[in-house]
Design goal:
Strand content: 5-15%
Shape: rod-shaped
Strand order of the largest sheet: 6-8-9-10-11
CATH architecture of one domain: Up-down Bundle
Structural class: alpha+beta
Number of strands: 17
Oligomer: single chain
Number of helices: 20
CATH topology of one domain: Taq DNA Polymerase, Chain T, domain 4
Length: 987
C-alpha cells in the first residue's frame, strides 16, 4: 500500500476475476463448440444425403416435367387432330342431316302437292264445262226443235202437240230413270273406289309409318348399340389400363424385391463384417482409465500434500535446529575456549554423545554439570584451557578428560530398569559415570524399582533423579547443552531423514505426476477410442438404420404394391364382370339392320293409290257427268212437263198462244243465233281445261316419280347420316378420352410439379427427346432416390444453420481467446509495473530504514530483505535488526519496547520513502521509555516539515512538540466537550 501498488493490485484482481468468469465462459464455449462439432459430422452426412436427394429429385422433377410436357403436347396434338376430325365429321353429319331434311321436306312437299285437290278441281271444272257444253248442245237441240216446231207446226193442233210432248215426256222419264240407275251404279262404284282409295292411302300411310317406326327403332337401336359399344370399349380400355397398371406394379414389386434382397445381403454383410455393437470393453477401459487418472491425481495430491507437509516439518525442524545451534553457540567460557581453538579441545561433550530418543533429560540429569563440558585428551590441556579463560576473563568452563573412542554400555537391568549407559553411545569415561544410574519411565516406576533394589540410583525420562538418600527434580528445568545438543542432533537426523523423505516424496510426486500424465493420456486415448468406436457405431448404426429404413421402405413399398395389385385385381374382376355384362348386353341387342323398306312395294302401293285415286276421280267425273245428265234430264223432263202443261194451256188458249209462239220462236231463233258462239267458246275452254288436266296429270306423274326418287335418296341419306352420326360418336368418345387424359395430366402437373400446364409447356418448349428415353431417365432417378432411403429433408438448412452457429461460436471463441490474451497481457503489464513500483519503493524504504533505525537505536543496525526476491509480488518482508551490544537479528527476540520502536522505525522509513500529506499515529510511543521516546520525537519532528501528523498520545513530551492540542473535558454539568488549543499561541 505504501508503495502505491494497491490500485494496480485491485486492477489485477479485477482482471483476474474477469479471467475466472471468462474461463467458465470459455469452458462452456469449448464444450458447446465440441458438441456442435460432434453433431456437425452426422448432420453433414445427412445434409449430403439430402443434397444428393435434392439433386436426384431435381433430375427426376426435370425428367418428369419433360415427360409430362411431351405427353401433354402429344395429347394436345391428338386432341387437336381428333377435334378437327370431329368437326369435319360433324360438318359432314350436319350436311347429311341437312340433305336428309331437304329430302324429307321435298318428300313432304311433293306428298302435300300430290294430296292437293288441284287436279280434282281441274277435273271438276272440266266436268262442269263438259256439262255446260252438253247443256248448250241440248239447248241448241231444244231451240232447233222449238224453232222447227214453232215454224212447221204452228198450224197443227194442240192435240198433236200434246201427244208428241207426252211421248217425249215418257222418253225423257225413261231416260231420267236410266240415268238415275246409272247414278246409283256410279255412286256404288264411286264408294268402292273411295274405299279402295282409302285402303290404298291407309296402306301407304301404314307403310310409311312402319318405315318411320323401323327407322326410329333402328336409330334407337343404333344409339343403344353405339352407347353399349362405347361402354364396352371404355371398359376394355379400363381393363387394359388396369392390366398395364398391374404389370407396372409387378415390375415395381420385382424391382423392390430385388432391392430388398440386395439390402438384405448388405445388412447381413454389415452384420457379419461390422463392428461389435457392444462398447462395454472400451467403456470399462475408459472407466478404468478415469479411475486410474483419479487415483493418479489423488496420489499426486496426496504426494504433494505429503511433500508440502514434509517441507513444512523440515522447515520447522531446520528453524529449531538453527535455534538450537544459536543457543549452543552462545558465548560462555567453554565456547570462548573452543573458538580460541586451543590444543587438545575436541568440542562439547554433547557432540560426542549419542542418546536414544526420549532419554535426553534423564542422561543430562545423570551427567549433571558434565552435560555442558568440553572433551579434552589430557588433564594438562584442560588446565591450559582454564588458564586461558582466566587470563582473558572469559568465564568458566568444565572439561572432561576422556578418549575419543565411542561405545555403548552393556550392563544388565536391575529392578526391571535399564542401565543409563546402554542408552547412549559415548566415550568410556562417560559410560563409567552413567553405569551408576538406571532409567525409569516415571516417578512411580522409580519408586517401585527402589523398593526392589534400594542401592540403585534411578533417573526418569522427565529429568527427575531418585535414590535412597536423595531426590532431585521438579517442574521446568533449563535444558543443558547435552539436551540441546541431543535435540539438535535429533533435529539434524530428522532433517537428514526429512531431506531423504522429501527427496523420496519429490520422486514420488514426480512419479505420480508422470503417472497422472500417463493416466490422463490413457483417459484421452480411451476416450478417443470410445468416441471413435461411438462414431463408428453411430456411422454403422446410421448405415444400418438407413438400410433398415430402406428395407422397411422396400417391404412397405412391396406391401403397398401388393395391396394395389389386390385392389387392381378387384377392380379388374369388377371391370371384367361389368365387361361381361356389357358384352352380354351388346350381344343381346338385336343386330343392326338396314330399314327394310321395299321401294317396289312402296311404288306398287303408290301406283295402287294413284290408280285408286284415278279410278275414284274417273268415277267422280262419271258420277258428275251422270249427275249433270240427270239434272239435264230432270230439267228436260220439267221442260217437257212445262211444255205439256203449256200445250194443255195452249189447247185451252190456242188463240192466246200464237203470240207466245211467235215470241218463243223469236227467242229460240235468238238462242240459236247465239249458241254457236257460246258453244265454240265452251269447247275452247273445255279443250284448254283438258290440256291443263293433262298437264296436271303429267306433273302428278312426274311428282310421283320424283317422290319415289327422293324417298330412295332419303333412305340412302338416312343410312349415311346414321353412319356419320356413329363415327361422330366414336370421335367424341376419343375426344372425351383425350380430354380426360389431358385433365389427368393437368392434375398430375399441378399436384406433382406445382405449376400450370402453360408454365410447363413454356419451360419445356424445346424438348425433343423421345418419351421412352425420358421415362428411362425418370425411372433411373426414382431408383436412385429410392436407394437413398429415408432422409431428413431439412438437413441442409439445419446443417447450414449449425455450421453458421459453429462459425459464430468459433469467432466468439477467438474473440474471447484474444480478450483473454489481452487481459493476460494487462496482468503481465500490471505485474511488471507493480514489480517495478514495489522494487523502487522497497529500495527507498530500505535506505530510509537503514538511516532511521540508527537514530532510534544508537549504535544499532537494521536492514530490510525480501523472503523471495525472485517473486516480488508474493514475497514477504524480513526485518533484521541488531541493537547495540546484542547479537539478535530477529524482531521476535526483541523486547516489547524494542519491537514497538523497530516497527515505528519501519513505518517512519515508509513515510520518508513515500511521503504522504498527513499521518495518524495512535499511541505509538506508549511502551517507550524517556530515552527512546526522545529519539522517536526527534524523528517525528523531521516529518513535520513535509507532512502533517495527528498523534493520539498520553505522553507529555509528545504533547509539547505539537502545534495544537485537542482533548475531551468534562464540564460541571457532566457533559463532555472537545477542547482545542494551539500550543504556540498558548505559549
Amino acid at each position: 500500500e505504501a508503495a502505491g501498488i494497491l490500485k494496480f493490485r485491485r486492477r489485477k484482481e479485477k482482471t483476474e476475476r474477469k479471467l475466472e468468469a471468462m474461463q467458465s465462459n470459455l469452458t462452456r464455449l469449448h464444450d458447446l463448440i465440441a458438441e456442435i462439432r460432434r453433431n456437425l459430422k452426422p448432420l453433414g452426412r445427412q445434409a449430403e444425403v439430402a443434397r444428393s436427394a435434392q439433386e436426384i429429385g431435381a433430375v427426376a422433377r426435370h425428367a418428369k416435367a419433360q415427360l409430362l410436357s411431351v405427353q401433354v403436347r402429344n395429347s394436345k396434338e391428338k386432341l387437336e387432330v381428333a377435334s378437327k376430325s370431329e368437326n369435319e365429321r360433324k360438318a359432314e353429319s350436319s350436311f347429311a342431316q341437312q340433305q336428309l331434311a331437304s329430302a324429307r321436306t321435298a318428300i313432304a312437299q311433293i306428298e302435300s302437292e300430290l294430296s292437293s285437290d288441284e287436279l280434282d278441281q281441274a277435273r271438276s271444272k272440266l266436268f262442269r264445262f263438259e256439262a255446260i257444253e252438253q247443256k248448250l248442245r241440248n239447248l241448241k237441240n231444244l231451240a232447233d226443235q222449238r224453232v222447227s216446231l214453232l215454224a212447221d207446226k204452228q198450224s197443227e193442233s194442240s192435240v198433236f202437240e200434246i201427244e208428241a210432248l207426252e211421248t217425249e215426256l215418257s222418253s225423257a222419264t225413261d231416260s231420267l230413270r236410266a240415268i238415275e240407275l246409272e247414278i246409283e251404279a256410279s255412286a256404288k262404284k264411286l264408294a268402292g273406289f273411295e274405299q279402295a282409295r282409302q285402303l290404298a292411302a291407309e296402306a301407304m300411310n301404314l307403310f310409311d309409318a312402319d318405315a318411320i317406326r323401323q327407322r326410329s327403332e333402328r336409330e334407337s337401336r343404333a344409339r343403344e348399340r353405339n352407347q353399349a359399344t362405347g361402354d364396352v370399349s371404355l371398359q376394355e380400355a379400363r381393363i387394359e389400363s388396369i392390366a398395364q397398371a398391374r404389370l407396372k406394379l409387378q415390375d415395381s414389386i420385382s424391382q423392390a424385391e430385388s432391392r430388398v434382397t440386395e439390402l438384405t445381403k448388405k445388412q447381413s454383410t454389415m452384420t457379419t463384417e461390422g463392428l461389435s455393437t457392444s462398447d462395454d470393453a472400451l467403456r470399462k477401459g475408459y472407466e478404468l482409465a478415469q479411475l486410474a487418472e483419479s487415483e493418479a491425481r489423488k496420489l499426486v495430491d496426496e504426494s504433494r500434500q505429503q511433500l508440502h507437509s514434509a517441507e513444512r516439518e523440515r522447515d520447522a525442524l531446520a528453524a529449531r535446529h538453527a535455534a538450537l545451534g544459536l543457543t549452543l553457540d552462545q558465548s560462555d567460557g567453554g565456547g570462548e575456549a573452543l573458538r580460541a581453538k586451543l590444543q587438545g579441545l575436541k568440542g562439547l561433550l554433547a557432540k560426542s554423545v549419542s542418546i536414544e530418543k526420549g532419554f535426553e533429560k534423564a542422561i543430562a540429569v545423570a551427567l549433571g554439570a558434565l552435560s555442558d563440558a568440553i572433551v579434552v585428551d589430557t588433564k594438562a590441556q584442560a588446565i591450559e584451557a582454564i588458564r586461558f579463560l582466566k587470563a582473558q576473563d572469559l568465564g568458566r568452563a568444565e572439561f572432561l578428560i576422556t578418549s575419543s573412542e565411542v561405545e555403548t554400555g552393556k550392563l544388565a537391568q536391575r529392578a526391571g530398569l535399564v542401565n543409563a549407559s546402554t542408552l547412549v553411545s559415548a566415550p568410556k569415561s562417560v559410560l563409567s559415570l552413567l553405569e551408576h544410574f538406571y532409567v525409569a519411565t516415571n516417578l512411580d516406576d522409580a519408586e517401585r524399582a527402589l523398593e526392589i533394589d534400594p542401592e540403585i540410583t534411578v533417573i526418569t525420562k522427565d529429568g527427575d533423579m531418585v535414590s535412597e538418600h536423595s531426590v532431585r527434580g521438579g517442574g521446568t528445568k533449563v535444558a543443558s547443552k547435552l539436551e540441546l545438543s541431543a535435540e539438535r542432533d535429533f533435529a539434524a537426523k530428522g532433517l537428514s531423514k526429512f531431506e531423504s523423505e522429501i527427496q523420496n516424496l519429490a520422486n514420488k510426486l514426480s512419479d505420480a505426476e508422470a503417472g497422472s500424465v500417463i493416466a490422463t493420456a490413457a483417459v484421452k486415448t480411451s476416450l478417443s477410442e470410445l468416441q471413435e468406436h461411438d462414431a463408428l457405431l453411430a456411422a454403422s448404426a446410421e448405415r444400418a438404420g438407413r438400410l433398415i429404413a430402406q428395407l422397411d421402405s422396400g417391404r412397405a413399398e412391396i406391401a403397398r404394391f401388393e395391396a394395389e395389385i389386390e385392389l387392381q385385381d378387384k377392380l379388374a374382376l369388377t371391370a371384367n364382370q361389368e365387361l361381361e355384362g356389357l358384352t352380354k348386353k351388346v350381344a343381346d341387342l338385336p343386330e343392326q339392320s338396314s330399314v327394310e323398306v321395299s321401294i317396289e312395294a312402296r311404288l306398287e302401293l303408290s301406283k295402287n293409290l294413284d290408280s285408286a285415286r284415278q279410278q275414284e276421280l274417273e268415277a267422280r267425273i262419271q258420277a258428275g257427268t251422270l249427275a249433270e245428265r240427270s239434272s239435264a234430264a230432270s230439267k228436260q223432263l220439267a221442260v217437257l212437263k212445262g211444255r205439256l202443261a203449256e200445250a194443255v194451256s195452249a189447247k185451252l188458249a190456242a188463240n192466246d198462244a200464237s203470240l207466245a209462239r211467235e215470241s218463243q220462236l223469236a227467242s229460240a231463233k235468238d238462242v240459236l243465233s247465239k249458241l254457236p258462239q257460246v258453244m265454240t267458246l265452251t269447247q275452247a275452254l273445255s279443250s284448254k281445261l283438258r290440256v291443263e288436266l293433262l298437264d296436271l296429270e303429267a306433273k302428278r306423274s312426274q311428282r310421283s316419280e320424283r317422290l319415289v326418287q327422293l324417298r330412295s335418296q332419303g333412305i340412302e341419306l338416312e343410312a349415311r347420316f346414321t353412319s356419320l352420326n356413329s363415327s361422330v360418336h366414336e370421335v367424341e368418345m376419343q375426344n372425351y378420352e383425350l380430354r380426360l387424359t389431358l385433365q389427368n395430366l393437368k392434375e398430375r402437373v399441378e399436384s406433382e410439379l406445382s405449376m400450370s400446364i402453360e408454365e410447363l409447356l413454356e419451360e419445356n418448349a424445346d424438348v425433343d427427346q423421345p418419351v421412352e428415353e425420358l421415362q428411362k431417365l425418370l425411372r433411373q432417378a426414382e431408383a436412385k432416390l429410392a436407394q437413398l432411403g429415408a432422409f431428413n429433408p431439412l438437413a441442409l438448412e439445419e446443417f447450414s444453420a449449425l455450421e453458421e452457429r459453429h462459425k459464430y461460436l468459433s469467432d466468439q471463441l477467438a474473440d474471447l481467446t484474444a480478450a483473454r490474451a489481452d487481459l493476460t497481457g494487462i496482468i503481465g503489464d500490471l505485474d511488471g509495473k507493480m514489480q517495478h513500483i514495489f522494487a523502487s519503493a522497497f529500495e527507498d524504504t530500505k535506505k530510509e530504514f537503514e538511516k532511521v533505525f540508527p537514530l532510534l537505536f544508537p549504535g544499532g543496525a537494521g536492514s530490510l530483505s525480501l523472503t523471495d526476491p525472485d517473486n516480488l509480488l508474493a514475497t514477504g518482508l524480513e526485518v533484521s535488526v541488531k541493537p547495540a551490544g546484542k547479537r539478535i537479528e530477529r524482531m521476535s527476540l526483541l523486547s516489547g519496547g524494542e519491537r514497538s520502536l523497530a516497527a515505528v522505525a519501519l513505518l517512519i522509513s515508509i513515510f520518508k520513502a513515500r511521503p504522504s500529506p498527513f499521518y495518524v499515529l495512535d499511541e505509538v510511543e506508549a511502551a517507550l521509555d524517556d530515552s527512546n521516546l526522545g529519539r522517536l520525537l526527534n524523528v517525528i519532528k523531521s516529518l513535520r516539515d513535509s507532512s502533517q501528523l495527528i498523534v493520539v498520545t498520553h505522553q507529555k513530551r509528545t504533547m509539547e512538540i505539537a502545534d495544537a492540542l485537542y482533548g475531551v473535558s468534562m464540564r460541571q454539568d457532566g457533559i463532555t466537550q472537545v477542547v482545542g488549543q494551539r500550543v504556540e499561541l498558548a505559549s
